[in-house]
Write a structure and sequence with these properties.
alpha+beta, Creatine Amidinohydrolase, 5-stranded antiparallel β-sheet, globular, binds magnesium ion
Length: 264
């Protein structure tokens, strides 16, 4: 027998969505600044300083700093590091790198959470294709963020798009296992967990005002990860390049509303 849950993804009022977007805009603006600052010769530590300064100048607080003991305001994940890379003075960006930056801010108690991958100078064709694919796959997931859908409609869309985009580009991209999106609001990570693959039509129903952080991670090699001894840095087990894109998104009667926009 197929079990169908009657629960919904937690919803926010229009005023709460405004408050979340105010937090999200700070994240978007910060990521845009980092996109410009991330050039060969710059350390991920310097990028972290830029991020913290921008977030605090906007009157917000970095969500990540101190979260479960994380030491920085951004995750800076280079090449085979897929998530949770710690910014370091001796991690210097080089031509050909793919840098994933994940960033969060809290404003008036509400969280915004967003990630982008940045090509440093010119990257290899397969790395460029991976990066473009991951962003495209994010938007395939976002397109399912509409009232009436179920949670795993997003998961399924991400999985299907990964296959389709890979086929078109002539590569095999893999959805990274064991990581995914999440509910978000007055805490950065809330239920439900949002898998990046799986069958459609399962999990809680998306309602008007539901908010999720949608965040596909793709690999050019293995879909499996390993964690370093620092307790954070998560790498693709076979050393393949990986990319990560994320938006905080609300479901509205007019369609998906991105709460972490990077353009004004
Ligand atoms: Mg994030
Ligand atoms: Mg997230």
């Amino acid at each position: 027998m197929r079990r169908r849950t009657t629960s919904t993804v937690p919803t926010r009022t229009p005023a709460e969505l405004e408050a979340m977007e105010a937090a999200g805009r700070i994240v978007g603006r910060t990521l845009r600044a980092l996109q410009k600052a991330a050039v060969p010769g710059v350390s991920t530590f310097e990028l972290d300083e830029i991020a913290e300064t921008l977030i605090r100048e906007a009157g917000a607080t970095p969500s990540f700093k101190g979260y479960a003991g994380f030491p920085a305001s951004i995750c800076a994940s280079l090449n085979d590091v897929v998530v949770h890379g710690i910014p370091r003075k001796n991690t210097i960006l080089q031509e050909g790198d793919l840098l994933s930056i994940d960033c969060g801010a809290i404003l008036d108690g509400w969280h915004g959470d967003s990630a982008i991958s940045i090509e440093i100078g010119e990257v290899a064709p397969d790395v460029a294709a991976l990066n473009k694919a991951t962003e495209e796959v994010l938007f395939a997931g976002i397109s399912q963020m509409v009232p009436g859908n179920r949670l795993t409609d997003i998961s399924h869309a991400i999985q299907q798009a990964t296959r389709k985009v890979g086929k078109r580009a002539g590569y095999r991209f893999r959805v990274v296992k064991n990581f995914g999106g999440h509910g978000i609001g007055r805490e950065m990570h809330q239920d439900p967990f949002l898998p990046n693959e799986g069958r459609a039509g399962k999990g809680p129903r998306i309602a008007e005002g539901s908010v999720l952080a949608i965040e596909p991670m793709l690999s050019l090699g293995s879909p499996w990860t390993e964690e370093w001894d620092d307790g954070w840095t998560t790498v693709i087990e076979d050393g393949a390049y990986s990319a990560h894109w994320e938006h905080t998104v609300a479901a509205t009667s007019e369609g998906p509303r991105i709460l972490t926009p990077r353009s004004e």
